[in-house]
Amino acid sequence: MNKENNRGQWASNIGFLMAAVGSAVGLGNIWGFPYKMGASGGFAFLIVYLVLVIFVGFATMLGELALGRKTGLGVIGTYKVLSQKFAWVGWLGFLSGFFILSFYSVLGGYTLRYALGFLMELFSEDAGFGGLGSGAFFGSFIINGGQNILFHGIFMALTVLIVMGGISSGIEKFTKVAMPALLVMLVIVIIRSVTLEGASTGLAFMFAPNFSAFQELGFMKVLKTAAGQMFFSLSLGMGCMITYGSYLSKNEDLEKNAMIIPIADTIFALMAGCAVMPAVGAFMYQGVEGISFGAGPGLLFVTLHQVFSVGMGGFIGNLFGFMFYFLVFIAAVTSSISLLEVCTAYFIDRKVQKGEEPNRKKLSTIVGFLIFIIGIPVCLDGLGSGVAGGATIDIPAVVFGMDEVRMAFDCWLDFYDMISEGVFMPLGAILMSIMIGWVLKTGVIKEEIESSGIKMRAYAFWDICFKYLVPIGILFVLIGQIDDFFG
Ligand code: PHE
C-alpha cells in the first residue's frame, strides 16, 4: 500500500488501465451488447451506440476520472467536497453500486455454474447438465433457489477476496493477469465462431447497413436502449470511475486514459458480438432448433448453451463451452470488484478522514456480505416466475413486504436493474455533467488535467459535451424511460 496515504494507489498507469477496462468489460459487453443489438436492430443499434460513446461516453469518463483524482475520494466524498448542492448525488452512485452488484453477482454465479457444467461434461457425459436440453436445464436451474444462492455466494466471496487485497496488490494484480487472458480466450472463441459454416449470416446481421429498426421500433426506443447499455457497459454514471480515478497518480494523462477505456470497451463489445452472433447465425442457418438473434436475455444461457451442446456438440462443443463461460465469468469478476470497491471506498474514506487506520479486510467483507443478502431475493426470482408451474411461494416479497413493487417489475432482478441502470445511472451522469459544465465550470477539469504538467488538448469539445451534449442526450433517455414506465 502506498505510504503517503492509507487509501492505496495504482502501481502503474497500465495497471490502472487494466483495472478500468476490466471494470468496463463484463456481462454488459458479452451478454448485454449482443442481445440488445440482436433485439434492437443490429446495425442501426451499433451506429447509435457509437455516436453516444463519442459524444456522451468520452466526456463522462473524463469527468469522472478527473473529479475522482482531484478529490482523492470515493463517489460520496467527491460530491460532498465539490458542491453542497450536489452532495447527495454521491449516494445515488453508492446505491447503484450496491444494487447492481447484488444482481450482477447472481448472474456471475450463473456463468460459474455453466463453466463448471461444461467442464464436467468434458469428463463424463451428462454430468454437467443432467442430460437436459438447454431450455430445460435453464428452467430447472432458475427455480433451484438453493443452487442460485450457493453460486451467488461463491461469486461474492471471490469478489471480496480480491478487493480485500487492496488497490495495487488486489485489484490491479488480478486484472493484470485476467484481462490479457480474457483477450486470448475471446480471440480463440471468435476464430471458432467465424469459421463455422453459415457464420456470415451472423456477421451480416451485425455489420450490413440496415436501418429498418428505426421504423419498426422507433428511433427513441433504439436510442434509449443504446444509452442505457452504454452507461452500464462503460461503468459510468455511478462513480465507479470516480473511485478508480481517486487511486490514480497525479502524473498520468487523464485525457488519454478517458479515450482509451471507452475505445477498449467498445472493441471488446464488438469482439463479443463476433464471438456470439456468427455462432448463432451458423446454427440458425444449419437448422438447429431454438436459435435466433433476437432471443433477448435468453441469448447467453439458452441460445449459446444450445450452440455449444447441440450445434458444435461432443468434445469440441464442451471444450469451447467451458472456455466461453469461463471467459464470461472472468469478465464478470473484473467488473464486480469495481462495484464492490465503490461501496467499500466510502467506509474506508470515512476512517481515513477520522484519522484512523482503515481495516480494508473487515470493511470489504461486511459490505460484500450485505450485498450478498440483498441479492438473495434475486436468487429466488425463479420461484415466483411461473416457470415453476405457477408456484405461488414468494419468499422474497413476503420478507420485504413489497409484493406490489415486485409484481410491477416481474422479478427483483428487473427492479434492481431498473432503478440502477434505468434511473440512478443516467441521473448521476446528467447531474455530474451539469455540475461540471454549469456550476464548477469545465475549467475544473482543465485544471486537474494540467496539474500533471500536460496541456489539455480538446477544451472546446469537452466544454460543449459537459454543457450541452451530455445533458441533452441523457434527457432524451430519461424522457424515454418515463414514457415507457407510464406508457
Ligand atoms: N461495465 C460492467 C459490464 O459491462 C458493469 C458495471 C457497471 C461495472 C457499473 C461497474 C459499474 O458488465
UniProtKB/TrEMBL annotation:
Task: Specify the domain of life of the species encoding this protein.
Answer: Bacteria
Q: Which compartments is it annotated to reside in?
A: Membrane
Q: Which parts pass through the membrane?
A: 12-31, 43-67, 88-107, 150-171, 177-205, 226-247, 259-285, 322-348, 369-402, 422-440, 460-482
Instruction: Give the membrane topology.
Output: Multi-pass membrane protein
Keyword annotations from UniProtKB, A to Z: Membrane, Transmembrane, Transmembrane helix, Transport
Pfam families, per database record: SNF
GO CC annotations, alphabetized: membrane
Main subcellular location of this protein, as a coarse class: membrane
Q: NCBIfam families annotated for this entry? A: Na_transp
**What name does UniProt use for this protein?**
NSS family neurotransmitter:Na+ symporter
Q: Kindly list the organism's lineage.
A: Bacteria, Bacillati, Bacillota, Tissierellia, Sedimentibacter
